[in-house]
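Help!! Second protein's tokens look totally different from the first
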Amino acid sequence: MAKAAKKKAKTGKKAVRIVAKSKTATISAKSAKKAAKPTRTVARKKTAPKIDPLNRNQYSSMTPMLTVRDVRRAADFYTSAFGFKMRGIMDGPQGPVHAELRLRDTTLMLSPESRPQQSLSANTIGNTPATLYILVEDVDDVFHRALAAGAKVLMPVADMFWGDRVATIADPDGNKWMIATHKASPTEAEMREAMARMSAPSEETAAVTAGAESEY
């Protein structure tokens, strides 16, 4: 009886070993099968860079474009007189077709005159209704630089009632520029008073006018 129980226990241990071996073999087979499967690489879609519709990295809200007779000559004037920096110039078979200059946060575009496209310079037209207002550190210095570079005086340097010291010039292509340096920030009442003083005739002018009237 004891021998039979002992034999039965040995048989049980052997069965456990066989089951354990079969489980190990199954796990190994699954691992081998898994390793044999080719791994699928998921292709990641490259996201296109987001385009800013306002192109704020390159331009501010509004960019003036001037039509000039000679793009390179005009660019030389703006760099010498006002301190613009050349940003780029695009050449075509007939010469420059576009140029961009930069002053602080402002871009200035230049395009050549073209009669077929009805794109004419201010000099060709004979005048311009537009005036560009440019703020500089020293209006007197920039005014004299502009004259040396070929500008014409339209209004000499003077202090204005709104607090800026201003001069007006026409560049070699006939475009009008008001050059200004901010000197003061007057109140509305102070501006009205200063404007009244500027509008009132001086004593000398009044005397000349009175003398002329007395002759008749």
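Here's the second one for comparison:
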Amino acid sequence: MADIIFVVRTNPTDGRHQEMNHWYTNRHIVDVVGMDGFAAAQRFTITDETQRNTHRYGYLAFYEAENVKTAITSLVAARGTPKMPMSDALGPDRGSTYYEAVDGKTGLIGGKARKSVYVEFLNPAGEDSDFAASYVAQTLPAIGALPGFAGGRLLRAHADTPTTPVFRYVAIYELADQALAIQFLATAKIPSPARSAEIEAFFFTAVCERLAKQDALRLLAA
């Protein structure tokens, strides 16, 4: 994986889901992935419709970034120009944060398309270093080993992220079988020392295939 993931959470303007999805998938992520600093992207929607009432955002995008400063510079330069046209079908309430891998190792997240993911947004109650070490050593392997899961990775907010993150950490788990993962996670006894005082956790289903840099550049050149 690119060790840096730009996580963007969005909602459509009321009644304009289809229009937003068409624009976001077919235009917006193509524009962004084609910029310097980005390598690939994929979009997801929350799996359980009933959770839309408890989760502020219904859509999630993972942008695999090569360099945070370069990515930020590219986005700032393109904003408001024909290089990145926006759509009013995209709702104004959005959240975005650059995250970097805590373990520094190449993991399962990134480098391939994912059909579904389980994501935990986390704010530690205690010291960040203690939380990260405990989560990587205990919680991550415990969840990743459950039936239906294919592994996961913990990431923390990058120091150069331009806005104050709502959540300082995010854990992203790839799923081999979402239905099985939902079933077993509901009854699993997960090691608790590293668990956060504040956590939002949801299952997401892919909206589109992963878009790699070479494919974005080909589409932009067409």
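Reply: Different proteins will give different token patterns, so don't panic. The mean pLDDT is 88.
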